[in-house]
Fold each of these.
Amino acid sequence: MLTPPCEHTHTILIAKDEQGEHLECLDCGEIFDVAERGPASPGFNETLSDA
Ligand SMILES: [Zn+2]
């Protein structure tokens, strides 16, 4: 039984510098740049939607 790859749907901004913003995935703990996550979308609002 394979574990599906983490889709990093829950991320927090942990650092920001001239190279970009760095996110940490709350699910798997991986850290990556916003630029690595795909096309530059100005609004990555992955907040909890508890509307
Ligand atoms: Zn993840």
Amino acid sequence: MNARSLLAQAVDTALEGTVVLSFSRVGYDVRSRLFAWLDLTERPMTGKVAVVTGATSGLGLTAATRLAALGASVRLLGRDIGRTERAREEIATRTGNPDVEIGVADLASLDDVRRYADQIRRYHSRLDVLVNNAGALVREHQLTGDGMELTAQTHVVAPFLLTAQLLTLLAQTPGSRVVTVSSGGMYTERLGLPHLEMGPDGFDGVKAYARAKRAQVVLNRQWAQRAAHSGVTFHAMHPGWVDTPGIQEALPGFSRAMGPLLRTPEQGADTMVWLATAREPLTSNGQFWLDRHRRWTSKLPWTRTSAPDAHQLWQWVSERAGVGAVDGPEPVVTP
Ligand SMILES: NC(=O)c1ccc[n+]([C@@H]2O[C@H](COP(=O)([O-])OP(=O)(O)OC[C@H]3O[C@@H](n4cnc5c(N)ncnc54)[C@H](OP(=O)(O)O)[C@@H]3O)[C@@H](O)[C@H]2O)c1
């Protein structure tokens, strides 16, 4: 490592320690200048297929647009047909790429997720990228039709099911990746199964969200270990604090207070697109990223996840999603 990279590394570590500067647009601006970042237009995606969930708004819409601009066949997953079709039109017009199609599934319905995965499997012989991005921070306790708390189902169980259902297709595509959009909010919570799915008494949407985001990161590592034989790589990331409709609605006070310090959706989605397209992420598996660098998954000692807890989470989510074992020489996925 030369003196310049050592200095860049030191500045990055100092930034990471401040949290606020790191997660804001300052972190992105400084890192994108400090490091010789790959220009992503050098990674064309022609002939590759990418599924992006939550593609109607914010980070998902931006990531899907950038993947389409790189020439990928992009499959947008939304829960509302009108909004999803508008996103498709916008992406196709902005990028000039007509190969953008929509699918409709509400992650609050596991049957919807199964139906959607079935469609993808039926019409595609490859899947290069799955971006598990969809999700919201909700203030009220709500039960889904599957009888689960909404946050736990939409952020944890449904993306797990979608990944499991698409694993065989991903595994038959060389260089395929699964990118999970977590949140820096997960640093505040430890994994604790009895608390992951919160009940109505004293429900706290911010806590439920942070716990679900922690569970996503633990599952990302688990996927990397348990499906190592598949050749698929798994990456979790957090986008920093990004000015999207989601953050404006969920945290209006925070959003106003941060104002111009919030990242743009392009800045927030940068690492999503980099993980989906660059070669470097293929050399690691199960890691957690911000601004194209690997990050610790815990900043506080009491938030570290033990191996038995991670195993228990895997069992819990498999049961909830109705997914069989993926250990073994071949990925096994129950319908
Ligand atoms: N913005 C930030 O600062 C920030 C920070 C950390 C992590 N994140 C994460 O980034 C991801 C995207 O968030 P965003 O900020 O871009 O928010 P956003 O603008 O509200 O976009 C969220 C997307 O998820 C979709 N979605 C929500 N619930 C769904 C469900 N039940 N089924 C299917 N789709 C659903 C939304 O669809 P509709 O259009 O139908 O509502 C929308 O497309 C989320 O996972 C969020 O937790 C964001």
Amino acid sequence: MRYDIALNNLDQSAPYVRSQVERSEFLVAVTGAGISKPSGLPLVEEQVGGVALRDFFRPELLERDPVRYYEIYREWVIRWRQAAPNPAHYALARRGVWVVTQNVDGLHRDAGTEHLIELHGNLRELVCRVCRRIFGSLLAVEQAGPPRCPQCREVLWPGISLEGQQVRHINRAMDWAGRAQVLFVVGTSLEMDPVRRLPAVAEENGALVVWVNTAAEVILPRLLSFQERTSG
Ligand SMILES: [Zn+2]
């Protein structure tokens, strides 16, 4: 069964969803950029450093103009380092919801989510494509110009999946979705394959699928906080 929850139907839907949440042992959330927007992070349509974020996720700019790419990278990494999780991230973490995220901002980890799949990697890391060594993103902030592997002298790549590259751990994500009793889809319209298949996998296995596409920072704490129980 599918539920779409927004502020205007929250009062109506919340009791039923809460009752399902309370009797469920395994909850999973699939999240996207919308959950991090209240934390001050941009959506893919927005521009950072004069370039649409969407293009930041494509390899063309990095291949063509690594200097420019890393100017934007620095701007984004600095903005990301100032961002903190919001009540939506915390509500998922506190309830022990397992999270599959398309975000690279690391905010689920900062909120304390223990079981986390970052399908597109994360901004904390840089990778040498020759020797496969991983470096912290600060390396790109501290040096001028594109960061290079100290050993191979290759320009490092961000530790995120660029468009056309495979998303990571999708089989594990499918397994989680198939076992979920309630699956939340938060802040994403799931337009991309293969992640768009996750709700269907959950539904086929009997899960309640709850879509929260706006105001997750208000709605998720309402749906996931434990109800005060009267004794006896
Ligand atoms: Zn290297």
Amino acid sequence: MRLKADAPSKEVDTKISELLSNEQYFRICNECGERNPCGWMHSQLICQSWAERNHGVIY
Ligand SMILES: [Zn+2]
């Protein structure tokens, strides 16, 4: 019996893209346009790395 090696990774991919498109977990930074986990957002609008680089916020 052969295992379908590609099946699980496809499932994972789908799960990941679901997660990535879920605004509950990820937000798109208004400044750099990158998608960040909510925990990595400085505010609703900008990510921590942007805040750090451009607003003098130290994390
Ligand atoms: Zn950003």
